[in-house]
Write a structure and sequence with these properties.
By secondary structure, the chain is α+β, with helices and mostly antiparallel strands. The protein contains five helices and eight strands, in the order E-E-H-H-E-E-E-E-E-E-H-H-H.
Length: 160
């Protein structure tokens, strides 16, 4: 399994996930740059994602929904802040309403995804920062650690 570590820090207001992939950095980058590949790894297996809009460029927006086991949809968005292809991208990640407007009742986070060569593979580090302890705790209570682990672990299937 690619995920090697998940840590949350309620004082630093961060969630950090580390993963190792048996593929070069460019291949891992392509998964995030291609909406059809991103759909296969963004949600956990029981909540597959459908990407609606995908503009992975500074100022761009990615919108998606995840469909639950009983057909319910959970909407979200990214506002892309920075891109250094293929090494990293930074985005604001938020929950959304059906029309993809931000759901301000739930926390917004800033995510930095970085990819570095490690031997023949890639070391990926995903750092998510929250504005408040309550925001981080909300997503922890929603199961973000296990959901992220199972979602990221699906990348192995794409690179096999």
């Amino acid at each position: 399994m690619p995920v090697t570590d998940i840590r949350h820090d309620l004082d630093a207001l961060t969630l950090t996930i580390t993963a190792e992939f048996a593929a070069p950095v460019q291949r891992i980058w392509e998964i995030y740059a291609d909406p059809r590949q991103l759909e296969k790894v963004w949600g956990p297996p029981e909540f597959p994602a459908t990407v609606v809009d995908h503009d992975l460029a500074p100022g761009g927006r990615v919108t998606y929904y995840m469909t639950g086991p009983e057909g319910e949809r959970h909407y979200g968005y990214w506002t892309v802040l920075a891109v250094e292809e293929p090494e990293s991208f930074t985005y604001e990640d938020g929950f959304a309403h059906e029309d993809f407007s931000p759901n301000t009742d739930l926390p917004v986070s800033t995510c930095v995804s970085t990819f570095a060569a490690q031997g023949d593979g890639t070391l990926a580090t995903y750092v998510t920062s929250f504005a408040s302890r309550e925001g981080l705790q909300t997503v922890l209570d929603m199961g973000v650690e296990e959901g992220s682990r199972t979602a990221i672990d699906q990348i192995d299937g794409l690179i096999a």
